[in-house]
Amino acid sequence: MKEEIIDQRDNVLIRRAILEPGEASHWHTDVCHRFSVIVRGDELAIENRDGRPAQRFKVSPGDAGWDEPTDQAHRAVNVGHGAYEEVVVFFLDSADTDPQPKVE
Hints:
Elements: E1 2-9, E2 12-19, E3 28-30, E4 33-40, E5 43-48, E6 55-58, E7 64-67, E8 70-78, E9 84-91
Antiparallel strand pairs: 1-2, 2-9, 3-8, 4-7, 4-9, 5-6, 5-8
C-alpha cells in the first residue's frame, strides 16, 4: 500500500492511498469523520478483524461520500482488476491525531 499526505492544515488532513490488486491496508480503526473520493478502481472489500463476513463494494472513479468513525478493527482489500486509488479528507480532533491507528 502506498500512502501520501497531500496536505495538512490544522485539523484537516488530505491523503492519497493506492492499493494494487490483491493488496490490503493495515488493520486499523477510524477515529474521525472523513470524506473519500475514488480516483480509480472497480471493487473493494472491507474485512473485519472480529471475523464478521467481509463486505464487497463495486466502485467507480468519481464515487464520493462521507464515512463515520468506528472502533471496529478492519482493513481494505483491493479485490478489483486494477489499482485502487482514493483521496481522503480527514477531519481530525487535533492536528496530531492519527486518523487510522494500526491495530496489531
